[in-house]
Each structure stands twice: as structure tokens, then as C-alpha cells.
């Protein structure tokens, strides 16, 4: 008997083993997972079925995202093959060079399952960043050349792993012994390497960018955080702090407020000192410490439409403007001079100020965000749908009224009359500004970026070409799921395409 493992089973097993490995390497991660589980149990007890509105407790408990960073398009292509075996595809393009205040010379995508049933089985995703040595704002010609030579000479994934990955993808899974071998090699590829690091080279890169050193200063890659999903991130933040874990000073993303949860809220704790072997110029090896890994936790909300997302981005700007105008500054301590280091302050929620005033505190920012949110975002799911801001799937209600009358035709009326119900689609992706904030909140130094020269241009099409796989547009994926559900409603009720909740044509 030689059981076969489908891609989703490989994915679930990989996520679980990676979690075990990371827990051994970073003990604080285990604390984070324990506290997350306790919060989720409490939320489930308090809110009942409502707690599972954005994913079953089974899915949420197993849910993780990881993050890795690689150096070359060829390496990214190999990552895509390993994750392809797990049924994960590249979704979304994130340019963190622009989103970060510190030197974060990477562009990124996220590998994840895309079909609804695959997401329900196990939604494991990996935020994957690619170094940009060709960007002259960070690297001069000489450094670029040495960096590219260094990267070209290393091997992140053994050929046997890649061969098994290709076979798994082509055959739709692997048989027992091969699956075991594949999983062992794949987890090992993301462990922290014990090989000595060339101290001078690492430090040269670190002066440019700590991220560049983390990627291009070593011979391997590693998982740099693994993030569980929590149902109440504010409560999680309180409990971790009470346990003495020093969290970054904010929760990134939308503020806590009394309307529907949208998109993604994240927070993290600092990288921990980890002993590493360092090779000196004379060839001798000494021991030092590096901080390259950290802990992160997230709460997921409803996926926004393109229009909803544009509104979200505009609200972020409105919060910045409001803080810049000084409306939300607490009376005490206002007007103090900005400290030098604040230009690249921790937490990513810094406000660049040219007027010499101190940046807004996290509490001021949260208060401003709540005010802006309350004024601009609908307070109910129904309203989010009606204004075309959120993504939902629509389902015919089994015990709908049966008085012989034909169903109304507009989606709004179908919802009101109880023929159809709406289920929110959970946001499966990331946010560039939060990602940049997470990056820089965990960096030691800000690095340097020369904004006097033009940056190298990268976009989603470039990234697709670089790895030889199409980077999918996340909005297209949510829209397709919404549209497919509406087609089923139309067929079952024999109504013309019921269209958007606002009553117009199909969304
Ligand atoms: C990735 C940071 C982005 C997130 O959750 O936004 C990220 C990294 O540090 O490599 O994981
Ligand atoms: Ni993350």
C-alpha cells in the first residue's frame, strides 16, 4: 500500500512541520501560538457562530503565513516550483522599496492556494521577497556585481528537492516515501543555516540595508517569521504584553473600530538575538549574534473590492493629513522636536514631518484612524456590499419564503426578502504599507537609500517573467468567486443575473 498525498495534504503537512521547526528555533513563537489559541477559544465561546464568519475554527487554528527572502529571479523560480508542488501560486505584486521609509530593497509576491475549496482545506501562504540589486538607489555598480556573483554561486534548494517538486506538480501529488522525502528536504531548506557567515561581507551589506545583508550576506534562505491568525488581535496584544513580551508599538492596518473587520491587521515582536558563527578575514571563526527572525500575528477581515481598496488607501492618507494638521495631538508633550532617529522610527507608523514637530504617537494615530474610519466606512456588511466596497459570495437560502410568489429580480431585494444570503470573502493577501512596517520595525539600522537617482522599475509582469509563472491579480480572484456564486443564484432561482447588491448590472 503506497498512499498518495494530494497537494493540499502536502501543504498542510509542510505548514505543520514548518511550525514545529520554527517553534524549536524560536521559542517565543510557541508562546505566541499558545496565546493565540487561548484567545481564539475565548472568542469562539463568547461569540459563537459569529466567530466563524470569516473561516471555520479548524481553518483558523491551522492557518499560518510565513515569509522568506531570496536573491535572484532564478532562486524565485525554484521557490515557485517548491510551492507549486503544494498547490500554491504567486498572487499579488508588492513594491516595498516605495512603501518603506528605511532601505528595504525588495519586491514581493505571496504564494498561496487560490480556489475556495483549497483555501478551506489549508490556506497556508508565504510572503516571498526578491532582492533588487539592480536598483541604484541602494547598490552602486561595484557592490551590485559582487552581490550578484555571490548569489549566483549559492544553492538554496538541492536538485533532489526540485525534482520531487516538479513531479508532485505534474502528477498532482506524491506517493508515501517520496512525499516524506520531499517534506523533509523542503523544511530543511528553510531552517536557519549553521554555516559560518563572512563577517566583513555581511557588515558591508548591512550598512546599505539590513534586509540586503539578511538575503545576500548568507548562503541559504530561512523562514523569518511564521504568523498564526487570531480572532481578536487587540486582546492578543494585551495578553502578550502582560506576559512580558515586548511587542512593536502598534497594530498595523485598519484601526480597531465597531464596524466590520476588513483586510488585515498585524502586529509583531522584535527579532531575538540568535548566536551565529562568523568567519573573520583571517579565516578564523568566532561567535556573534544576529537578529533576523521575529514573531508576528494577524487578524483577517473582509476582502475589499478595487473601489473598497482605493477608499482604504485614501483613508490612510486622510489619517496622515489629519495628524499633520495637528487635530488629534494630545495636549501634553506636543510640539517637541523630532529626534533624528524618528525619520526611520520603529513600527512603520511614523509620520515624516518637515516642521520639526515630533511624530504622532501610536495612540494619536489610532484615535485619528478611528475618527476617519467612522466617517467614511459603512458600519454593516450589508452596506459594504451595497456600496460595492466588499467582496461577498451569494447563496440561495434553503428555507426561503415559499408563498408561490416569484423571486424579486434585484440582488438587494433578494437579500431583503430572505431568498439569498451573503457570505463575506476573507482577505487572503497582504498590505504593502503594513508589510513595509513589519520589515522596518524589525531592522536594527535604517540603511541608506539615495533618492537622488531613479530607482529600477519592476512590476507584476516583470516578476512573472522573472520566475516563469504568472503573478495573479488578487482582485480578479475575489471577483471570480463572487461572480460564480451569483451565476449559481441566477440558475437556481431562474432569475436573470441578479447583479450587484446596489441593484445594477453584474459586479
Ligand atoms: C516580510 C514582511 C511582510 C507581512 O505579513 O506583511 C509580511 C518579511 O519580513 O520578509 O510578512
Ligand atoms: Ni508576515
What does this structure look like?
The protein is α+β, with helices and mostly antiparallel strands. The protein folds into three domains: about 5-300 and about 430-470, Uncharacterised protein PF07063, DUF1338 (2,3-Dihydroxybiphenyl 1,2-Dioxygenase, domain 1, Roll); about 305-380, no CATH class; about 390-425 and about 475-505, no CATH class. Helices cover about 45% and strands about 15% of the residues. It is built from 19 helices and 14 strands. Strands 3-4-5-2-8 form a five-stranded mixed sheet. A hairpin with a 5-residue loop joins strand 10 and strand 11. Helix 10 packs antiparallel against helix 11 (about 210-215) and helix 13 crosses helix 14. Mean pLDDT is about 90; it is low at about 330-355 and about 500-505. 2-oxoadipic acid binds near residues 266, 296, 435, 438 and 439. 2-oxoadipic acid (OOG) binds near residues 266, 430 and 434.
Which characteristics define this entry?
single chain, 507 residues, alpha+beta, 2,3-Dihydroxybiphenyl 1,2-Dioxygenase, domain 1, 3 domains, 3-stranded mixed β-sheet, 19 helices, disordered C terminus, binds 2-oxoadipic acid, binds nickel (II) ion
